[in-house]
Design a protein that fits this description.
By secondary structure, the protein is of the alpha/beta class. It has one domain: Rossmann fold, CATH 3.40.50. The chain is about 35% helix and about 20% strand. The strands form 2 sheets. An 8-stranded mixed sheet has the order 3-2-1-4-5-6-10-8, sandwiched between helices. The chain has a two-stranded parallel ribbon with strand order 7-9. Strand 1, helix 1 and strand 2 form a beta-alpha-beta unit. Helix 3 runs parallel beside helix 5.
């Protein structure tokens, strides 16, 4: 059996972000009950399968975190902040607070769940290569170190009832555009119709379209072959989108 089936509840933490929006939409269209958590209200896009719950990862209590994931079958953690100091750090939303402490608290809450079957965490390529360029620069303020700590917390949360998947995408590009970054300026479109390159561990370098990343997350949730895997992923525009069979084969190799 796959980790989730139509009708199961999936909590998407970070569901108001670019990748989180796409994951929520794909899951809802497939019949899952999607619970999006965010500090701000989130539109359900007129889809009754999407609901919203307010959750502040930095200031929220342990009880609020546990309440957010109650009775869920799967948890997607797609959160983050800027790698370098910006206004997004206001209110304590630093990489350490979000990618390390908040993810760790979520993982600990998940480990106590009686219904959760799978955790999917989105981090970044470079977590194991912080002594190499360009990750040496990207990690000047510790964003990759914080993400690595979050990964370790998710591994520790895994048990006989809960397995996990850790995705390490390249630089996220393409819509939906929620940040004023290079991708926003260039208005790069596309995604799941394109192929991907996937490799176990942290070995790739390149960009990853948000829609391709979202599709990979959905595959991690629904594919029975995905269990306790960690992989990097970048877009490959020379190929077409992967079939379920191709994803199954990739997960089995991992």
């Amino acid at each position: 059996m796959s980790a989730i089936a139509p009708g199961d509840t999936v909590v998407v933490v970070g569901g108001s972000g670019g990748v989180g929006q796409l994951v929520s939409r794909k899951l809802a269209q497939a019949g899952s009950s999607v619970r999006v958590t965010s500090r701000n209200p989130v539109s359900n896009e007129n889809n009754p399968n999407i609901t919203s719950r307010k959750l502040d990862l930095v200031k929220g209590s342990d009880e609020e975190l546990q309440h957010a994931i109650e009775k869920a079958s799967a948890l997607v953690i797609s959160v983050g902040t800027t790698a370098f100091p910006t206004l997004k750090w206001k209110g304590g939303n630093t990489p350490q607070a979000i990618d390390d402490i908040a993810v760790t608290r979520l993982a600990q809450a998940a480990s106590q769940s009686k219904t959760l079957k799978r955790i999917v965490l989105v981090t970044s390529i470079g977590v194991d290569r912080t002594d190499q360029m360009p990750f040496l620069i990207l990690n000047l303020f510790g964003v990759l170190d914080a993400k690595k700590q979050g990964e370790e917390a998710v591994r520790k949360a895994a048990n006989e009832s809960i397995d996990y998947a850790i995705l390490r995408p390249g630089r996220l590009i393409g819509g939906p555009f929620t940040n004023l970054d290079v991708a926003k300026l260039l208005q790069i479109e596309g995604g799941a119709e394109n192929g991907v390159t996937v490799a176990q561990g942290d070995v790739l370098l390149g960009d990853c379209k948000r829609d391709a990343c979202a599709e990979a997350i959905v595959q991690c949730l629904t594919n029975a072959a995905c269990s306790n895997v960690e992989f990097s992923i970048v877009s490959n525009e020379n190929e077409t989108a992967w079939s379920v069979e191709q994803w199954t084969s990739a997960f089995q190799r991992m």
